[in-house]
Write a structure and sequence with these properties.
- This protein is of the alpha/beta class.
- It has a single domain, classed as TIM Barrel (Alpha-Beta Barrel), CATH 3.20.20.210.
- It is about 40% helix and about 15% strand.
- It contains 13 helices and 11 strands.
- The protein has a 7-stranded parallel beta sheet with strand order 1-6-7-8-9-10-11, sandwiched between helices.
- The longest helix has 26 residues.
């Protein structure tokens, strides 16, 4: 099978010739891998037998964006940690809003700020891998507009404002995705309908709050995606397991990053319970084993994911989030070597 055939078969719950592989990593890790192999990122993917996805996107043609900011008006600054440097948000555009009337003073982004004319051409040029395009994340962007703590308080204390912001966000994501899919002409395979609902041990919001604030917007967005025949990839960090049945009913088809140590949750149970309805992407532990484990522990972890999540198909092996700069190169190599050698069906 080609990388495209292999990955799409897995996403559609089928059993390909082997478990497809993907690689998520920080910039520092990519630099370490390119230095190790003495090649560019494309060469790294080839050496590690990465299948992965090909991303396409419209060109931004909207109002000028200030350095360190984005078109939402969110601002970022680099913060150095022992584990690496990250761009941390330092300005939340709607942090001071108190009422729905205050939202009129904010310049809401528009789908018209993008040029979609080259999307189909991009798709046609990158058909060697599944085409991924579009990113809808109403709860995550609500957090970024208000600040995480304030946005969580809003769900309990400022319901009218919460509903108004989430509705405006969904209007943007819907309009952007609709134009994107139409421009892709049926060639877009995968899109993200994604949010971070989980913390390290439990949910960030209650299931009741999800039902009230997010479920209607997920239903609307997922309907659009299904109408265009685009698979729905859902990235959701942490212990989000209590919401998983709801998310599946609403239409998600692929779950990433499967941080099973958050909660925790048993991989065999996860596969047996939901593996006939959704595919899994990720799974290899990135909190303990990959950064701090021995090579033998990484091999055992990779085998566990192959034998549980990978059983019968419906699985793309990858780290359960971006590989971090403190991860030893030998552990990364051990993961992909084991997956390549032992991931044949």
């Amino acid at each position: 099978m080609t990388s495209r055939e292999r990955t799409l078969t897995a996403l559609d719950l089928g059993q390909p010739d082997r478990v497809p592989l993907d690689l998520w990593a920080t910039g520092e890790v990519w630099a370490k891998l390119t230095a190790h192999f003495g090649c560019d990122p494309a060469g790294v993917r080839e050496r590690l037998h990465i299948d992965g996805f090909a991303g396409v996107a419209p060109a931004y043609v909207g109002p000028p964006v200030e350095p360190g900011s984005n078109f939402w008006g969110m601002r970022y600054k680099p913060v150095e940690y022992a584990t690496g440097t990250y761009q941390e948000q330092c300005y939340f555009p709607l942090a001071a809003a108190q009422t729905v009337a205050d939202l009129a003073h904010y310049r809401w982004p528009s789908p018209d700020w993008f040029d979609y004319s080259q999307v189909r051409q991009q798709c046609e040029q990158r058909r060697e891998r599944p085409i991924e395009a579009g990113y809808s994340a109403p709860f995550f962007f609500f957090n970024q507009l208000r600040g995480l703590e304030q946005s969580l308080l809003d769900l309990a204390l400022n319901q009218e404002l919460s509903h108004a912001i989430l509705a405006r966000l969904t209007d943007f994501f819907y309009g952007f995705a609709e134009r994107l899919f139409e421009a892709g002409g049926g060639l877009i395979d995968v899109t993200q309908l994604t949010d971070d609902f989980g913390g390290q041990t439990n949910l960030l919001l209650s299931p009741a709050s999800f039902d009230e604030y997010l479920a209607p917007h997920y239903c609307r967005l997922a309907g659009l995606m299904r109408d265009h025949g685009v698979r729905i990839f859902h990235h959701d960090d942490g212990a989000m397991w209590e919401l998983l049945p709801r998310l599946i009913d609403l239409g998600i088809q692929v779950l990433n990053p499967v941080q099973y140590r958050c909660g925790p949750v048993d991989l065999t149970w996860l596969k047996e319970t939901y593996g006939h309805r959704i595919a899994f992407h990720g799974g290899v532990d990135n909190q303990e084993v990959l950064p701090f484990g021995t090579v033998d522990e990484v091999i055992a972890e990779t085998r566990q994911c192959l034998q549980t999540l990978g059983r019968g198909g419906g699985y793309v092996l990858a780290p359960c989030h971006n590989l971090q700069p403190i991860t030893p190169v030998e552990n990364i190599l051990a993961m992909y070597r084991t997956a390549w050698e032992e991931g044949v069906y």
